Amino acid sequence: xxxxxxxxxxxxxxxxxxxxxxxxxxxxxxxxxxxxxxxxxxxxxxxxxxxxxxxxxxxxxxxxxxxxxxxxxxxxxxxxxxxxxxxxxxxxxxxxxxxxxxxxxxxxxxxxxxxxxxxxxxxxxxxxxxxxxxxxxxxxxxxxxxxxxxxxxxxxxxxxxxxxxxxxxxxxxxxxxxxxxxxxxxxxxxxxxxxxxxxxxxxxxxxxxxxxxxxxxxxxxxxxxxxxxxxxxxxxxxxxxxxxxxxxxxxxxxxxxxxxxxxxxxxxxxx
Length: 271
Ligand code: AMP
Prior knowledge:
alpha/beta, Rossmann fold, Pantoate--beta-alanine Ligase, Chain: A,domain 2, five-stranded parallel sheet, three-stranded antiparallel sheet, globular, binds adenosine monophosphate
């Protein structure tokens, strides 16, 4: 456990944890703002977690900007930043992985082997280090939310999992550190993600409930974008990530960049 957490606990102060991989944007800051509202102490972690990247993914080139992150974090009124080195997080020879069976194997998990084991392992270690009362995650990564909720419940972590809405650009694109990879043409093409979700939400609002109709509406809108390769488009249950349900989840690849988004179709798409 971190020294600061030990002291805050002794003083009876509530602790909110916001785990991030840095390259901070308004989505991260919204999590911090919510944590600020609900806790006496807010800790942000900044750690690009090597074990949640599958072989051949973008671990090496993942955007890192510690100076800008530090500026944003101090502006957001953080009490402490936990920024462990890789060798501190994973002692040489560390080989333990936390596996949340079921959810971890579908959709994002199937596309990114080992990804959710890496997420579940690092989140468990962050909970142990910081001992937060509440931990904040973005709805942007809906399947990660399902994995973390299950993990906290199954391993009896005494932490409340809080989920904050997806923060979007003006055209609807979900903010993501990976948007920085996109050139202007690709950035325009990325609009197809939110356009597809909006279309499916409109169909749902008009009374469409047949999962296959909703799924093919998503798929067709994504396929209409020539620069996008569709990885999946599904309508699933938000806890189990199996069909049927009302959470639309989509993943595309534009050039070398992989983007995901989701929306609960029972709600109006924002904007
Ligand atoms: P990351 O740094 O990408 O690992 O994200 C750290 C946290 O911020 C995760 O809980 C994400 O779900 C959340 N997050 C990322 N993008 C957004 C967004 N656009 N809106 C809200 N939360 C987000």
